[in-house]
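REQUEST FORM: STRUCTURE PREDICTION
Request ID: SP-0412
Submitted by: Lab K.M.
Chain count: 1
Length (residues): 267
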Amino acid sequence: MRFRLTLHNPTSATAITWNYNYLLMAWIYERLKLADASYANFLHQEGYTSTHNQKRFKYFTFSPFHFNPGRNEYSFNKNGMVIKGENFYLDLSFYMDKAAEKFIVGVFRDQKMKVENNRFRAAFQIGQITTMPEPEFSPSMIFKAWAPINIAQKQEGRQDQYLRPEEPDFSELLALNLADKYQNATGEAISVNEIKYELLTDPEKISSRKISIKEQSRAETQIKGYHDFEFKLTAPIEVIKCGYYSGFGRFNGQGMGMVEIKRNNEL
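STATUS: Completed
RESULT:
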C-alpha cells in the first residue's frame, strides 16, 4: 500500500536540513511506536528475517518531499533546504496486507510531522492522508528511481563498494536483494534468474546522492545511492509488487529505493 501525506507549511520560508531522511525515519518510527509499541520495536530493531538468508528487511520506504511543479516552492543553500510552498507532499509505501490500511491511516492522520535536529526545528501539519490506488502490475514494467537506490558489494575489512546502475553486478545484486525480500516476506523461494533488470537511461545522466545517518554525531555514517534513472524489470508479478511497495536495494527504511511506474510494458 502507498499513502500520500499532504503537508502544510507554517511559514513562507521554513528551513530544514537537506539531509532529512534520517529525521523522517525517526519520526515514522515514533508514530508507529505510539500506536503499537511492539510492532514499531520489532520493525526498528529486528525486521523480517528467515533461516534462508539471515538478512533483515523492513518492508517500507518513503519518497523524497515533492512539490507542485513549476511553482518554485523550495530552494537549497549551503545550510539546508528552504520550503516556500503552502502545501507539499510525502509518499509512504508499505508492503503489507490491505487489512492494515486503517491502522496506517490512523497512525498518521491529523498529526504534525517534526523535522528537527540541533540546527533546524520545523513541524508540518498533516492535512490529509490518501490511500493511493494500486497500479496495474504486469510481468514486465518500466520504473524510474524516485529515491536513490543503494546496491553495494561487501568488501572484507573495507567500506562497501557502491555500484552504479550500469555496472554488471548491480543487476545481479538487485535481483538477489529482491529475491531474498520476497522469500522472507512470503516463505516462497524464487530464483534470481527469474528477475531481469535492464537499464534504460544514459549512464551520464544518472544522479547520485549521499544520505547521512545520525548526522553530526560520532556515530554518523553515510550511504550512497543513484536516482533519476529508468529501468525495465521483468519478474513474476508478486515479486514486482514486493519491490514496488517495499523499495528496491538496501536501506529502504531510510528512504532509499522508492520508485514510480513509468510504463506497464504489457500495455
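NOTES: The helical segments are 21-35, 37-46, 101-108, 168-186, 237-246.
Reviewed by: T.R.
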